[in-house]
Write a structure and sequence with these properties.
Blueprint: H1 2-8, H2 21-27, E1 32-34, H3 36-44, H4 48-56, E2 62-64, H5 66-82
Parallel strand pairs: 1-2
Helix pairs in contact: 3-4
C-alpha cells in the first residue's frame, strides 16, 4: 500500500516538515458522496433528519460526483424556467 501511495504522490509519506503526518490522514479520510435525491432532501429541508445529518458533517467531508452536479443543474434550470416572471 505504501508503495502505491508513493507512486501516486512522490514524497507523500515522507516525514519532512513540508508534509506533516496530519496532511496524509486528511488527504485520505473518507468522504461522503451525496446522490441527487439526498441533495434535493437537503434543499427542501425534508426530512429534517437528513438536513440535521448534513449539518453535523464538517466542511470538506462531503462531495458530489459530476453526474449529480449536472442533474442538480438541470433540475435547477427546469425549476427556474417553470416559475412565472416577477413583477
Amino acid at each position: 500500500m505504501e508503495a502505491a501511495l508513493e507512486a501516486f504522490e512522490p514524497g507523500l509519506l515522507s516525514s519532512s516538515a513540508e508534509q506533516p503526518e496530519i496532511q496524509i490522514r486528511e488527504a485520505f479520510s473518507p468522504m461522503i458522496l451525496l446522490d441527487t435525491n439526498i441533495c434535493i432532501y437537503i434543499i427542501n429541508a425534508r426530512p429534517a433528519s437528513v438536513l440535521a445529518r448534513f449539518k453535523a458533517v464538517r466542511m470538506g467531508e462531503i462531495g458530489l460526483c459530476s453526474v449529480v452536479a449536472a442533474e442538480l443543474a438541470l433540475v435547477w434550470q427546469e425549476w427556474f424556467s417553470a416559475q412565472p416572471p416577477g413583477p
